[in-house]
Structure to design on (373 residues):
């Protein structure tokens, strides 16, 4: 019996940790944001598309590694401080071991493990995953001239002009909020 | 976790320095971990001499290649400065201060479920985030020196990701295999 179709799924601490571990391990070659969306939104349905995207930008504004921040953000949503720790440990524990193993090898034999060519291929796929994420999420939220203009402006400011994130957001953020503010009772200034 | 006993006092001081350096870089890293790389280089190479210039570059490459957050470059710097314990201390110092800030922000965010401003941020920031995601894909491709073969592979993979339900892991593995075979 499924009386509530949109019943929120509350993952346990172990599930949080294992899920973020999976996200981290899958991201060989990059594309961590795309992997996070793939698992958190599409596979587990822990967040809606809009909730995830806004969380992602909040995590980019705040100091710290974006993906660690996102893990903390998702963890807090379900289990407060313990959830944050579980997600964070899940995201970093195995990667730390891998990076240490690679570093130990490097410092012992003075050589970067010969995996450059494999990585070239994987990075190409990771870039594709990031582009595909932009297409998939864009199809849902870029409806109408204003959101499209906001999207183009943000892309141009950060990819072409290479402005600092804080500057790009200071330019586009207020317009975005003005556009998205719920209308009805009161008009936002 | 066995720390190498090599002059205990010296080691304790190094650990404190690691905490000071990465704890403050954690708070300074607005916009992501990569924004503080120049300062990290200054502290770790020029000021404390934990590693050399070329080691810093190699360690950066390793942390980019490994899975997981790229900020794990601090794990390797900590390891080089003070062994296994240094690796642990540097990693925690880099994550904890920013993590606390995110923790309080997320709690505030979750307590404002029905606030008008939260709806505005969720709806309004979505197009901005899509722009940022596209930008980060392009920037990564540029910095990885994407040649035309890699772009071709990226294009094919993008179509597969967008139009089919193929497991992404299979595509990434196949791309790695193509790289290993020297196709890209």
């Amino acid at each position: 019996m499924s009386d509530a179709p949109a019943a929120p799924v509350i993952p346990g601490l172990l599930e949080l940790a294992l899920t973020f571990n999976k996200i981290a391990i899958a991201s060989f070659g990059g594309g961590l944001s795309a992997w996070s969306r793939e698992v958190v939104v599409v596979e587990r349905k822990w967040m809606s598309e809009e909730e995830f995207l806004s969380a992602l930008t909040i995590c980019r504004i705040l100091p710290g590694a974006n993906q660690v921040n996102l893990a903390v953000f998702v963890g807090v949503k379900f289990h407060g401080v313990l959830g944050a720790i579980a997600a964070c440990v899940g995201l970093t524990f195995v990667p730390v071991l891998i990076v240490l193993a690679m570093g130990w090898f490097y410092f012992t034999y003075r050589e970067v493990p010969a995996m450059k060519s494999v990585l070239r291929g994987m990075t190409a796929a990771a870039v594709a995953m990031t582009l595909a994420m932009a297409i998939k999420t864009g199809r849902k939220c870029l409806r109408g001239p204003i959101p499209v203009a906001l999207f183009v402006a943000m892309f141009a400011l950060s990819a072409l002009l290479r402005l600092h994130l804080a500057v790009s957001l200071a330019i586009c953020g207020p317009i975005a909020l003005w556009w998205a503010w719920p209308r009805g009772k009161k008009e936002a200034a | 976790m066995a720390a190498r006993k090599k002059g205990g006092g010296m080691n304790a001081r190094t650990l404190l320095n690691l905490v000071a350096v990465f704890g403050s870089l954690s708070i300074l890293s607005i916009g992501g971990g990569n924004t503080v790389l120049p300062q990290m280089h200054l502290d770790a190479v020029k000021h404390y001499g934990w590693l050399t210039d070329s080691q810093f570059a190699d360690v950066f490459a390793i942390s980019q290649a490994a899975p997981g957050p790229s900020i794990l470059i601090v794990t390797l710097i900590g390891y080089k400065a003070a062994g296994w314990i240094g690796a642990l201390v540097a990693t925690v110092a880099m994550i904890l201060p920013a993590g606390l800030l995110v923790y309080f922000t997320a709690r505030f965010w979750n307590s404002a479920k029905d606030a008008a401003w939260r709806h505005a941020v969720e709806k309004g920031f979505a197009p901005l985030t899509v722009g940022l995601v596209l930008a980060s894909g392009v920037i990564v491709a540029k910095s990885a020196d994407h040649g035309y073969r890699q772009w071709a592979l990226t294009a094919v993979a993008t179509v597969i990701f967008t139009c089919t339900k193929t497991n992404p892991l299979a595509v990434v593995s196949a791309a790695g295999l193509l790289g290993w075979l020297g196709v890209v």
Observations:
- Residues 1-5, 185-189 of chain A have pLDDT under 50 and may be disordered.
